[in-house]
Amino acid sequence: MKKYVLVCDLKDDPRLIAEYEAYHRAVWPEVLQSLRDSGILRMEIYRTGNRLSMVVETRDDFSFEAKAAADLANPAVQKWEQQMWNYQQQMPHAPEGVKWVPMEKIFDTEPH
Question: Is 15 within a domain?
């Protein structure tokens, strides 16, 4: 199993943040299925202020590139992602068009 942590910022507007959270209390079934199909075993999103942190646990053969390609071919996922852009904003150091930025692990109580 692999684990990834990614971050993303929301637009700093309490109404938009509340709407974003409401969407995530009822994620579309097609989006959940696409996550499972890509090899994502578990996904959690945490929020403080307008900063989001996502923890993703995947199968060993998971690939962000393969997930992105599958997402492009999935109309429901594309619609979901377009909707989420109403709430999310690009982080200052993210490449153009990238919402979720992977974090680099710098400490672990269980060194490998």
Answer: yes
